[in-house]
Automatic annotation (TrEMBL):
<keyword id="KW-0333">Golgi apparatus</keyword>
<keyword id="KW-0931">ER-Golgi transport</keyword>
<dbReference type="GO" id="GO:0004601">
    <property type="term" value="F:peroxidase activity"/>
</dbReference>
<protein>
    <recommendedName>
        <fullName>Coatomer subunit epsilon</fullName>
    </recommendedName>
</protein>
<dbReference type="Pfam" id="PF04733">
    <property type="entry name" value="Coatomer_E"/>
</dbReference>
<dbReference type="GO" id="GO:0006888">
    <property type="term" value="P:endoplasmic reticulum to Golgi vesicle-mediated transport"/>
</dbReference>
<keyword id="KW-0813">Transport</keyword>
<dbReference type="GO" id="GO:0000139">
    <property type="term" value="C:Golgi membrane"/>
</dbReference>
<dbReference type="GO" id="GO:0006890">
    <property type="term" value="P:retrograde vesicle-mediated transport, Golgi to endoplasmic reticulum"/>
</dbReference>
<dbReference type="GO" id="GO:0006891">
    <property type="term" value="P:intra-Golgi vesicle-mediated transport"/>
</dbReference>
<dbReference type="GO" id="GO:0030126">
    <property type="term" value="C:COPI vesicle coat"/>
</dbReference>
<comment type="function">
    <text>The coatomer is a cytosolic protein complex that binds to dilysine motifs and reversibly associates with Golgi non-clathrin-coated vesicles, which further mediate biosynthetic protein transport from the ER, via the Golgi up to the trans Golgi network. The coatomer complex is required for budding from Golgi membranes, and is essential for the retrograde Golgi-to-ER transport of dilysine-tagged proteins.</text>
</comment>
<keyword id="KW-0575">Peroxidase</keyword>
<keyword id="KW-0560">Oxidoreductase</keyword>
<keyword id="KW-0968">Cytoplasmic vesicle</keyword>
<keyword id="KW-0963">Cytoplasm</keyword>
<keyword id="KW-0472">Membrane</keyword>
């Protein structure tokens, strides 16, 4: 599906995680075919920066466009922790996924594809994996949907299925940036070529003078940890934190790098920050669950009395 050079640049910034750069870009005229896709990507960038309120403020409240409705629903979903409210929003997205199958739809083909990606993302966040995959489409030829499908498979340790999706996409997709990004993500999990492909890809992107992405810096930092290049990894992660203070994934990666270096004080500091600033981060939740399990098991164990040595 053809797009303008300006929209291609917008998508490139989003895919590479240059969210702050993306949201600073001027919007095209409201009559431009690029207007709706641009505000949708900018709203998604705000959501990625954990600012759903800014996403909602950007979107025209009276729009009937299906992509605008979908990104508004995703922003509202991530902004609430109320389970009943979340389920109501997921139902909205289910209705939109059905609506785009009809003929009388307010939106272009690109908008319809965006609905699938946004709804699939929300379902994946809700851990409705099967529904997410079904919504995104088993045989989709939308590369962005494939990217989300691959991430879902990687998140549930199905690297084989992720590879299968990538191999299928290579048969019809152009060798563009997003395809390379998908390949790099799989390479990190599959330990392919000693992570050299992922490392080369991230280094190439960071060499782009028009790109400022703490996300890519963190990704290369993680890659360097896996390659046991700890000082280089920490350098990337420190730079990333300077650009995007308090980012959860960067804090977690920095903590791991410090632990490998046996810098306990530094690792403890990062762990405290991660627990305090991001209490629902998967690593924090996992460690808390394991700590509870340990305490539960320890409570069932009776320590025998210490043996007393016989008097000489």
């Amino acid at each position: 599906m053809a797009s303008s050079q300006e929209l291609y640049h917008v998508k490139q910034q989003f895919f590479l995680g240059a969210y702050k750069t993306l949201i600073s870009l001027p919007l095209p005229d409201s009559s431009s075919p690029d207007y709706i896709p641009t505000i949708v990507y900018q709203a998604r960038a705000h959501i990625a920066l954990n600012d759903p309120a800014a996403a909602l403020a950007l979107l025209p409240a009276d729009s009937e466009n299906v992509a605008v409705k979908a990104v508004s629903a995703l922003a509202r979903y991530v902004s609430t922790s109320d389970s009943a409210r979340q389920e109501s929003i997921l139902e909205e997205l289910r209705d939109l996924a059905v609506e785009i199958e009809g003929e009388d739809v307010d939106g272009t083909d690109l908008d319809k594809l965006s609905v699938r990606v946004l709804a699939g993302t929300a379902f994946a966040r809700a851990r409705e994996v099967e529904e997410a995959l079904e919504t995104l489409g088993a045989e989709t030829e939308d590369l962005e949907a494939v990217a989300v499908v691959v991430q879902i498979y990687l998140s549930i340790n199905r690297t084989d299925r992720a590879k299968k999706e990538f191999d299928r996409a290579k048969q019809w997709a152009e060798d563009d940036l997003l395809l390379q990004l998908i390949e790099s993500s799989i390479g990190l999990v599959a330990v392919k070529d000693g992570y050299s492909n992922a490392n080369s890809f991230y280094t190439e992107q960071l060499g782009n003078p028009s790109l400022s992405s703490p996300h890519i810096l963190t990704a290369r930092g993680v890659t360097r940890i896996l390659r046991n290049e700890i000082p280089e990894a920490k350098s990337d992660l420190e730079e990333s934190l300077e650009q995007q203070k308090g980012d959860a994934e960067t804090l977690a990666a920095f903590m791991v790098a410090s632990g490998i270096e046996s810098k306990k004080g530094e690792a403890d500091e990062m762990w405290t920050r991660l627990q305090t600033e991001h209490p629902m981060h998967p690593l924090v939740v996992d460690v808390a669950q394991k700590a509870d399990l340990f305490d539960e098991s320890a409570a069932k164990f009776t320590v025998p009395p210490l043996a007393v040595a016989a008097a000489a």
